[in-house]
Design brief:
Layout: E1 2-7, H1 11-20, E2 25-31, H2 34-44, E3 48-51, H3 60-70, E4 76-80, H4 85-94, E5 98-101, H5 106-117, E6 122-123, H6 128-134, H7 146-152, H8 158-168, H9 173-180, H10 184-197, H11 203-212
Parallel strand pairs: 1-2, 1-3, 3-4, 4-5, 5-6
Length: 216
Amino acid sequence: MIKILLVEDEKLMRVGLKSLIEGIGDVVAEAESGKQAVEMYRKTHPNVVLMDIGLPDITGIEATKRILKLDNNAKIVILTSHISEPEVISSLQAGAMAYVMKDTGTEILKMAIKSVNDGAMWLDAQIVPILREKNNGVIPPRQMSRAAFKEQHANLTAREYEVLKLVVDGMSNNDIAQALTISEHTAKAHVCNIIQKLVVDDRTQAAVKALKEGLV
C-alpha cells in the first residue's frame, strides 16, 4: 500500500478522498493547512503527498516548496479545482510531480498516485495546452543530456520521432495522419508504439515525458 499524506482543508473532501483511494493507498496522516502539511510530512515520511492548493495559511504550492526542502525526493500530487496558468506553472516549478483536477475520475486519480509513487510525472490532460505554450523552464529537466536521453530511447524510429513531435503539439491521430500523409490506422499504430517504448500509459504522458526530458 502507498503511504499517503492527505492535505485538504475541507473535512468532507478528506473523507471522500480517503474512500476514493481505498485499495491503492493508506492515508497515514492528514493536514488541514500548508504549515501542518510540512510538519506532518516531517513526522510521517509518506510515499506520496496529495496536496490541495487553496489552504488557509500558506498555499499548497508554498507547502510543496517547503516539503521538498526537507526531502528533495518527496513525491507530491497537486489535487485542485484551480486551472489558472500561474497556478499550474508555479506548482510544477515548485517541484510537484502531478497536477490533477478534482473533477477527475476515480481511476484517473488512482493512476496519477500510482505513477508518481513509481517515480513518473502525471499531468491532467486539461493543462497540457498550458504547458505547450509555456514550457520554457516549467518542467524541471532530469539530470540527463538530450543526447543521452535520445541514446537511451534510440529504439524510437525517425518516423516515431516525427509523430511524437506532433503528439506534443496536441494533434489527434487524424491530424497526424493528414500532416504526414499516412492513414489514421498507421498514425494510431505509431502512437501506440511510442507509448510502449517510452513506458507510459497514454499519449498525454508521452508528450509530458518528451517535454520534461528534452526529447523534442
